[in-house]
């Protein structure tokens, strides 16, 4: 059996540019939690991404909570929806430093091709 992908690290702003079924890892703040719909709205700066939490055990998501999600993108009515496979709280992470490290990693990997 093949293991699911670890998720390519991307920013929330990049999610709408990716193809259906892409496996991604995003980090952002909980803006809104809709437990009856099993949906979570994740944001970073002015960008937002809707997360489907139906595969995740129930959790009390709080606005402002910083979370990291690994999942697969599927498009519903031309809008990206991230179907979460893994979700963890990362409150306390220095998100600006994390994003700078990702940018440096991306730049380095581009030179290795």
Count of alpha and pi helical runs: 1
The largest β sheet comes out as:
5 strands, mixed, barrel
Order of helices and strands: EEEEEEH
* Assembly classification: single chain
Distance between the termini: 29 Å
Give the structural class. alpha/beta
Poorly predicted segments: none
**Overall geometry:** globular
Average pLDDT: 92
Q: How many extended strands?
A: 6
Walk across the major sheet and give the strand order.
2-3-4-6-5
Strand percentage lies at 35-45%
Helix content: 10-25%
Q: How big is the Rg?
A: 14 Å
Structure explained in plain terms:
With 113 residues, this protein is an alpha/beta fold. The protein has one helix spanning 95-111; strands at residues 8-9, 23-34, 39-44, 47-52, 66-76, 79-89. It has a five-stranded mixed barrel. The model has no long low-confidence stretch (mean pLDDT 92).
Write the layout of secondary structure elements.
Layout: E1 8-9, E2 23-34, E3 39-44, E4 47-52, E5 66-76, E6 79-89, H1 95-111
Parallel strand pairs: 1-2, 4-6
Antiparallel strand pairs: 2-3, 2-5, 3-4, 5-6
